[in-house]
Amino acid sequence: MLKLIKLEWKKNNIEKYIRNAVILIVLLNAFLFAQCYLGIANDPDTGIPDAVPGTFNISSQVELLTNLSFLVFTCVMLASFIISAYKNKTMHLMFSYPIKRQKIIISKMLAVWIFNFTALTVAKLLIYGILFYTSKFMTSDFPIDYNMADFGFYIQIILKSAVTVTIGFIALFVGRVFKSSKATIVASFLLFFLMNGTVGDFTLADNAILPIVLTVVSLFCAFLSVFNIEKNDVM
């Protein structure tokens, strides 16, 4: 399986995605730093940070932007690795190899999952680290509400990153149903809005049950994406 995953990275020019992920992380770092220390989120009249309900702490801002960015990034890669492979007929060729179709699809899904889980985890650690250590020299407009010396902080980052990337499998299933890469990407935005919906002072961002439910649904969608694929015709 590891050889197939490496083959998927090589075949899909993973260097391009590494470059794009690095650019994205740099942009997120710059924006959140400016928001936290340069006052770009402050109300021009009052000088007080103007944030939507549930995002008054800097950790909420980091989670919101990184999760959105890499959920979409994950779905773009899934669309490219799988949906586009069906549409441009390269999947037909791969299914002619003496390898089980399920193994081929699973290797593609894992190739995307491993890459984005790693990238999202690294992005969060870098952003949190820069903001935390800068707070020792500058005053933050948003409360620094996390402790990088706490082991639980890193467990949360790992779990939240895993959940965010896994949810991309729901969008993949939608894309396969509609046979459309665009449907996969649109579904990623809808999923994000569902996870972070806000009505008045009520927000789903802090709901502990919703991520569990979405993760279960995601794993079921991943199962459906490979179930009975040996007997089904290609898209």
Please provide a written account of the structure:
- This protein is mainly alpha-helical.
- The model has no long low-confidence stretch (mean pLDDT 83).
- The protein has helices at 2-11, 14-37, 58-87, 90-95, 101-134, 151-166, 168-178, 181-195, 209-226; strands at 198-199, 202-203.
- A two-stranded antiparallel sheet has the order 1-2.
- A hairpin with a 2-residue loop joins strand 1 (198-199) and strand 2.
- It has nine helices and two strands, in the order H-H-H-H-H-H-H-H-E-E-H.
- It has one domain (2-226).
- It is elongated, with a radius of gyration of 20 Å.
- Helix 1 (2-11) packs across helix 5 (101-134), helix 2 (14-37) runs antiparallel to helix 3 and helix 7 (168-178) crosses helix 9 (209-226).
Note the gap between the termini.
24 Å
Q: How many separate domains make up the residues?
A: 1
Discrete helix count: 9
Order of helices and strands: HHHHHHHHEEH
Q: What is the number of E strands?
A: 2
Largest sheet: 2 strands, antiparallel
Which residue ranges are poorly predicted, with pLDDT under 50 across at least 5 consecutive positions?
A: none
Give the fraction of residues assigned to helices.
Answer: 55-70%
Overall morphology? elongated
- Going by helix content, strand content and strand pairing, the class is mainly alpha
Q: List the strand order in the largest sheet.
A: 1-2
Question: Beta fraction of the residues?
Answer: under 5%
Could you give the topology of this structure?
Elements: H1 2-11, H2 14-37, H3 58-87, H4 90-95, H5 101-134, H6 151-166, H7 168-178, H8 181-195, E1 198-199, E2 202-203, H9 209-226
Antiparallel strand pairs: 1-2
Helix pairs in contact: 1-5, 2-3, 2-5, 3-5, 3-7, 3-8, 5-6, 7-8, 7-9
